[in-house]
Amino acid sequence: MNYFPDEVIEHVFDFVTSHKDRNAISLVCKSWYKIERYSRQRVFIGNCYATNPERLLRRFPCLKSLTLKGKPHFADFNLVPHEWGGFVQPWIEALARSRVGLEELRLKRMVVTDESLELLSRSFVNFKSLVLVSCEGFTTDGLASIAANCRHLRDLDLQENEIEDHRGQWLSCFPDTCTTLVTLNFACLEGETNLVALERLVARSPNLKSLKLNRAVPLDALARLMACAPQIVDLGVGSYENDPDSESYLKLKAAIKKCTSLRSLSGFLEAAPHCLSAFHPICHNLTSLNLSYAAEIHGSHLIKLIQHCKKLQRLWILDSIGDKGLEVVASTCKELQELRVFPSDLLGGGNTAVTEEGLVAISAGCPKLHSILYFCQQMTNAALVTVAKNCPNFIRFRLCILEPNKPDHVTSQPLDEGFGAIVKACKSLRRLSLSGLLTDQVFLYIGMYANQLEMLSIAFAGDTDKGMLYVLNGCKKMKKLEIRDSPFGDTALLADVSKYETMRSLWMSSCEVTLSGCKRLAEKAPWLNVEIINESDNNRMEQNGHEGRQKVDKLYLYRTVVGTRMDAPPFVWIL
Amino acid sequence: MITELEMGKGESELELGLGLSLGGGTPAKIGGGGAWGERGRLLTAKDFPSVGSKRAADSASHAGASPPRSSQVVGWPPIGSHRMNSLVNNQATKSAREEEDAGKKKVNDDQPKDATKKVNGKVQVGFIKVNMDGVAIGRKVDLNAHSSYENLAQTLEDMFFRTNPGTIGLTGQFTKPLRLLDGSSEFVLTYEDKEGDWMLVGDVPWRMFTTSVKRLRVMKTSEANGLAARHQDPNERQRNQPM
């Protein structure tokens, strides 16, 4: 390759798009490093505190697309205080100052303010795509800046964010000249929507492929929107009223029939199940169906809908579907690759919830299944062994038995053997979440067999430090390890400090690690940020004479090339 | 762990189930006004160091009987907060609708298994958002955990204006008590009702307030002019502090 001029090598590199591969290329030799860094357009930073904007820009001056992730995963479950960090402002400021030609920004679990959005909208002439997932800190005023100032906006995709809604005028901030929208997703907005502005926007966006509405968009508006956008591929229905008048309903049916490109359906945030039949004509084309927010769709209406969806590859559903419903899925959806079953009733499971039977049925009926997230009331080892036999191709296997520490409900044994069977059979397993009663044994299996495992979530599991040690020693590809309420302590934490350099992060909350253990770790590994999150009085920890032995509530550690961060709140103690 | 810290506080009679230990606490009586009475003090985030302020209302369920339900453990089951809020809202609406269909019933105090929050037969969604002028990041409060305006005001004061050394409230710089309700301080407490109007907190009886409130805002008194006339521009900008 060294006989070729740089431009040729660069051209070859253009075909290499995955981040992993590009990272690997850059390590081959100095000349490749240099060519790669100037030609790199898309950068992914899995932990925004692992580096800083200045280093990013120094290395990749031709950056066009940036993906940043902020808070650790357990922040989704309220285990990380709001003020912990993950601010996007310094990144946007640095990018703006450097005049890099940013076109796309994708953020997950970061704090975004209206000021950041305004700065973003004004600083990059070619800005095209904004994707915000599980972010917070901004209002619809920030969205208004994006709408008003980004002349070539293609994607505005807001997924599960906490957005303060100042009621609906942001949609009218899109200028009449804006006709480039391809994606518009505002399903997570809680407030009113200016329907007139929305309809006009959709009507002048011929390239619109993905439209996800919020709960404030009623059925008759939906009909009109679909009539203006028959080219739609991905639709999120907002409110699907209780008693639509027959005229609206007929209009909707007519509009839906024209949407022959529709492949993905979601939403139904407030749904009248008997109207679902309007969608039956296009169901045979659907590859993705997300009814996980549609609490009112269940029973026979749901089953009838699913029976029409023979090409489904992805299904997100509530457990009100029941084992019987999952059997229908198993016999209908032979192309199914990803299934997520969420709980619908947290107050104390009814008999409509799902059990191990549903999981087994799916595994038997859907040979292409590779990703599953399954919340259920009970599980058995036998079922898991069967699932492992039926589906050795799992890449992601996340099982959540709702009651912590629940054993096999038939044999009362721990579920070690069941999960062991999964990791042994699924040689490509990259992500695993455990639940139920588990001893150190399951971790022995994981360490032994889960060679490709990158992310492991542990809760209320294990007996001794050995459990954690099996995992740290065995899983060579481990990137993110998150543990809560498990009896792992300093011995496991400190056994192999260099391991953490190969990982993105480690989270341990309500475990047995002590302050002195964490301090020792921080001393041994200056290239790690070791954060103690302590929402009670920090002072108490210091003043207490037995401080060393005090157990740490929440520990979050991650490798970084830029040392201690400066924006940590007072209750985060970086050792 | 959570249990140790709670016991150490010396506030013994707290039954509020926010993130209580897996063993469950003493059964709490859900009942009519004054249930929290003189002894109740609202537990706030500072009592539960591992609890974030955005909890599913559901985790405040008061089951006295063991085994602990999954909903009593903080951050469990592992469902994203956005989804959790939607779930809670759906359950509340569903129950409320069922209540209406079945006719109004008074909740019987002798049914400790009834874990939904019902006051006088109406299910309420517990957590609502609170924003304060000048503070970028909002909080949430559980209305069901309060019995009066004074209670609520105290909680909000604690949330936004902590005076304990070693901890900083969201604003940091204010240390004098808020006195949100008597009009004597720099701030007033307002709320958005079901009709979308912004109103001054305190005019109607507490129960009526809890059924009609959608969210709260701690507003600068200077901006609250005209609240007596019960109208507030709903599009009033909230200024965010730069991060």
From TrEMBL, chain A:
It is found in: Nucleus. Residues 4-45 form the F-box domain. Its main location: nucleus. One of its GO terms (biological process) is auxin-activated signaling pathway. The keyword Nucleus applies. Pathway: Protein modification; protein ubiquitination. InterPro entries: COI1_F-box (IPR041567), F-box_dom (IPR001810), Leu-rich_rpt (IPR001611), Leu-rich_rpt_Cys-con_subtyp (IPR006553), LRR_dom_sf (IPR032675), Transp_inhibit (IPR041101). The keyword Nucleus applies. Keywords: Auxin signaling pathway, Developmental protein, Nucleus, Ubl conjugation pathway. CDD domains: F-box_AtTIR1-like. SUPFAM superfamilies: RNI-like. GO terms for molecular function: auxin binding. GO terms for cellular component: nucleus; SCF ubiquitin ligase complex. PANTHER family: F-BOX/TPR REPEAT PROTEIN POF3, PROTEIN AUXIN SIGNALING F-BOX 2. This is F-box domain-containing protein. It comes from Capsella rubella.
Automatic annotation (TrEMBL), chain B:
Pfam families: AUX_IAA (PF02309). Its main location: nucleus. Residues 83-94 have a biased composition (Polar residues). SUPFAM superfamilies: CAD & PB1 domains (SSF54277). Residues 47-118, 224-243 are annotated as: Disordered. Keywords: Auxin signaling pathway, Nucleus, Repressor, Transcription, Transcription regulation. InterPro entries: AUX/IAA_dom, AUX_IAA, PB1-like. Homodimers and heterodimers. Aux/IAA proteins are short-lived transcriptional factors that function as repressors of early auxin response genes at low auxin concentrations. Belongs to the Aux/IAA family. This is Auxin-responsive protein. It comes from Capsella rubella.
